[in-house]
Amino acid sequence: MIYIGADHGGFKYKEKIKDFLKKSAIEFEDLGNAQFDPQDDFPIFAFRVAEKVVETKEKGILICTNGLGVTIAANKIKGARAVLATTKKAAKQSREHLDANILCLGANTTSIFLAQRIIHIWLSTDFIPKERYLRRLKQIEKKENAINSNN
Fold it and tell me: Looking at 8, 64, 104, 120, which residue is catalytic?
């Protein structure tokens, strides 16, 4: 299951990505926005997708104008590892090295053709549990836990 979300800056792009996922027989759930609203705010959808991804241990895709805002917002959710992948290599390494669980895309910065390739690679690449990758993820998790225990 893929959870997908976008603000007004990524709404039309999200609809194209949904068509791609349907054609690829990839199950997804659209967590909004359900309609184009030029006044909506990206954090709402980033938080919604990130929380669902962390809760279900599935993956997510977030889209805004350039992908930056949704990446920052999603990473505020403990357990979310959102990445902005603008190349096929970055998509592959984000899964292999970082076990990224949310892929962020920019509607105005990445062509839909390239986004489809990035999504395919990202979804078909597994995490490589090398000692150094696991060590790094544990360091991130330790910091998340320390930050959240102070709240």
Answer: 64
